[in-house]
Structures
1.
Amino acid sequence: MAFVADPSAFHLSLWKKQLAHVPNSVWEHAGLKTLILADNELSEVSEQIGRLKNLRMLDLGHNHLTSVPDALGDLDGLTDFLYLHDNQLTSLPSSLAQLKKLRYLNISENAFATLPEAVCGLENLIELRASDNQLTRLPDCIGRLPQLRELHLRNNQLTSLPESIGELLQLRQLDLRGNPLTSLPAAMATLPRLEKLDLRWVTTLMAPAWISALEARGCVVYK
């Protein structure tokens, strides 16, 4: 099936078109800034996606992807959003670390057991959503996201967090709901901008003493 679009168009939505494959004609629209392929039946995406150098937003959510192409790393104009949620991903290509301008990444509702280290290369990331996976650990490199303001980790299998979480000096919101946490690093107490810490549905954690100090300086802690 071919989709005819104005070659000068900046936005293309193929949302919920029951696509099993992305039509080759899509890759011909090099001027695209927004491409929405969500809510289809995609099990793969061609490496040709790397031709869309002007993309600022890409939505591949709600499909059946078990991997994404290395060529995603060629989309160095991707600044606004990359949606990969609700697929069957267990890893991401190392090339993803080349997306130095990306500000929002959603990899929730997949099958990640560890957060891919490529994510740590996204130095301008403001919001990271990795809820509803099978994460048992976060890599130490999580501290290399200097602009990160929101980190959403609800419903994973985390029992602890690395000390490097304390290096996220711009972090405002940290969602840890529904994890089997048994400890939290003391470095969290020094996060200067933390406004919201969500620990609801965590039944395995004895709240550390420094939690009250966080609350005293205005951080809202949900327990």
2.
Amino acid sequence: MNESIYKNYKTIKVESNNISYIDDIVATEFPLTFMLNGTEFATIVCTPANIREMVIGFLASEGVIRSIGDIKSIDIDKTRGFAHIELHKPLDVTNLDHSKRFIGSCCGKSRQFYFKSDVQTAKTVKNTLKITPAQCFYLMNKLQNKSNYFKKTGGVHNAALCTVHDLVQIRTDIGRHNALDKIYGFIIEQRIPVVDKVITFSGRISSEVLLKVSKMGISIIISTSAPTNLALQLADDLGITLVGFARGEQMNLYTHPQRIVQANSIVE
């Protein structure tokens, strides 16, 4: 067991009229404060694993960095709960006002609400990657089979970077967004091409989740859970194929079905 991700907790278990004492396994909740160039930037609550990747992915999602080359150094102080990040350039706080929403047109189809940082970093995805329903089922089933930490605690989310044939990397966190930031950080730090990649995901697809996938430049997300209406509007506008309720050999295909192929034909 990874002690940084889970802890034992003495628990009283009640089954009908029987009482027993067990060591339960619970997910670790860890506050992490980001210090950018010596200035406090944000505090998030996360699972303390793959923290460096999460820091990189979070900064990219927030529009602070464009590439790994923008970062001079990262020092993680897990004892005190700080991530000290030095950038090669001064921090431009004028472009990091997260309290204001921007109302804009996305591909001319609909008007959505974005943070300023989303406007700067969200991408319209135009690649022609194809995947079959059988491959979708295989990837999702493999993610679930490998979700050992969830099986132990029931308290974490999982995200995986995949090709259409197999899983590449899995990341786990108590927060859905954090799990995706860890994947994003892995992509940025390892300079992973994303044109042939897919995201499989264990959680609900909200608008924030969809925007993170857009910022990665990935064209297909497959989840066991449901999307929100705003996530669907954004997926439609940003060219992302969104698959929900992928369980066993069933799934719902919501947007951009041209990437899902069956028996040499496009799913209509």
3.
Amino acid sequence: MVFDRSGSITRFAEFGGESVSDDVRYLADWIADSRDAAGLDFVIVDKTYAKLYVFDSDARLRGSAPVLLGGARGDDSVSGIGSRPTAEVLPEERTTPAGRFLGERGHNARGEDVVWVDYDAAVSLHRVLTTNPMERRLERLATPTDEDNRISYGCINVPVDFYEAYVRPTFASRHAIIYVLPEIKPLEQVFGSHPVAAGYGLSRSQTRRTPWK
């Protein structure tokens, strides 16, 4: 945190030296300063770089991991998609929606414990699925590039070890906020966010890249 000219405290997220995208830094700083997470732990999903970050309630980074995301790019779920059989979901409809969600533990249709991101759209955060070997989900997570991380029907897949060490404890006894960054819409439109001023100048987050159009 820093003090501005008026003596007000400006709060920033703490990344522990980890390299993150400009958009993740921008949003995490805004969450820290605005207290948008309302005292809860929170998760940021960077769809552009297929990465997930878990923060505590003081906006300190706990851990990060690669993720698998919906096969189709886009920031909205198709209306009514959560009530349709998986086999009827078209490839272009397999999006991971962007937005601010109140994550909650629950169970999917297979009885597995998951974290619901958007229950109505049947989008959850869960351990990576390996039921279809042809999808090579474990291999996709292990590659250094994010170019092969779009494979799911919209759910967010994380490595099993990371789920057990970070995701499950975060949602074990209460809710947490899940922020899924857009890949088409501007961040400000999705979250109502703004750059965080730092002292006499601007925060590091104001040097972020322009959102995709």
4.
Amino acid sequence: MILVLTAAVVALIVSILGTPAAIRLLVRRGYGQLIRDDGPTSHHTKRGTPTMGGAVIILAVLCGYAMAHLVRLSAPSASGLLVLFLMVGLGIVGFLDDFIKITKQRSLGLRSGAKIGSQAAVGVVFAVLALRFPDEQGYTPASDALSILRDTSLELGSVLFVIWALIMVTGASNGVNLTDGLDGLATGACVMVFGAYTLIGVWQYNQSCQIAPGPSCYELRDPLDLAVVAAALVGACFGFLWWNASPAKIFMGDTGSLALGGALAGLAISSRTEMLLLLLGGLFALITLSVALQVGWFKASGGRRLFRMAPLQHHFELAGWGEVTIVIRFWIIAGMFVALGLGVFYAEWVAGA
């Protein structure tokens, strides 16, 4: 537990103290957020708010993870490093997207093809490497079997696994990206989901087949180190939320949203809880679904809209809800999904035991 607590505390300190320095730097360089003209008019007051704050989250996570291992003089694990690679790789893609928006003074950064292609490249490298580096028991950071709450008997094979991992990575990263539309909304929801993965990692470690062999023990590599990564993400997001809550002094931008979404996918794949992510990250799934439904209905109905605006949070803005009200209620929904997901995870272990 010292590893987990150290990672969370150090990441929190770096994030909460480092974000004001980032705000001053970004303001001095004029790196402010551009606002879509077709979005809610209330957002026009946010024009010029510093963006790319996700870089602070990434730095805080790396510092928290490194310090945890320095304190205990323990070596990083392959699983932990691969999740961090996925987070940093997608964060770089998001940084390029944000930087182009700012320098070109347009609300769209990377072209869609370049953005998706870059995300895909990072995801493929992660998936290929995750099937390597077996430990003493032969467990690799990821398995080519489809997992729900643990690995199932359905073997995908290497090629299908890479495709499946790519779908998860792009889906999770874009899901967080779509959610990041109101002050603190995505950051607060991420705190809850990463908190759940911290608990899952600790539980899987305590109930691993090496420590507690039995009918419900978990067969996977490095569950404790995955908890350390998740705890660092909790601390980093908590610290950033202090400055990102309404009225936000800084936005995470695509730098943060793509990185956090990638970390979610990496933790789900490495902890063998791939399908559980749909439940734990239910808010992200709902908001992504609202965009898909809006586009599909618009094309099928000849130009009619299902929602006043997508993603879903903007529909409620145009319906007259206050921003803080929407954020708090969506946080409640996110918390309910996380609680349900943890309940399902624990119930499966109890049933097996």
